[in-house]
Amino acid sequence: MAFFVKTMISNQVKNLGFGGGSEEKKEEGGTSDPAAAQGMTREEYEEYQKQMIEEKMERDAAFTQKKAERACLRVHLREKYRLPKSEMDENQIQMAGDDVDLPEDLRKMVDEDQEEEEDKDSILGQLQNLQNMDLDTIKEKAQATFTEMKQTAEQKCSVM
């Protein structure tokens, strides 16, 4: 009974055009030319294929370049923070060629961060930090630390 139902459904699907491809191909003449299937001449189809391949190569090259730029940024950050090097990043840079550099906007960001750090490390930067500090807050923190140390010492030493 199940075989009979399956066969009926299969026949109905073929009649709707969803199946039975072998019967339809025989009726149409069975052209296997992809250009005719696309509605183009052979030359148009070949030109279209060449254009598609060229566009894919351009996209792949742009993608490889972006990956290498990101890897270059990671290398710079690893050097800056003294982190271990990644062989994968170095391989991506080599695949794109050694002319890979940081994108301009990322270079500006890195340069700005570097300038800020240099300013903080300089003597003038340290003096500005001292001017920005509140002396009352520093006194309160020092007093709290001293009191805490005194209480800890009293708890540990029974002589005091």
UniProtKB/TrEMBL annotation:
Residues 14-46 are annotated as: Disordered. It holds the Pfam family Synaphin. It comes from the Eukaryota. One of its GO terms (cellular component) is SNARE complex. Its main location: other. InterPro entries: Synaphin. Keywords: Exocytosis, Neurotransmitter transport, Synapse, Transport. Coiled coil: none annotated. It is found in: Synapse. One of its GO terms (molecular function) is syntaxin binding. One of its GO terms (biological process) is synaptic vesicle exocytosis. Belongs to the complexin/synaphin family. PANTHER family: COMPLEXIN, COMPLEXIN-4. This is CPLX4 protein. The lineage of its organism: Eukaryota, Metazoa, Chordata, Craniata, Vertebrata.
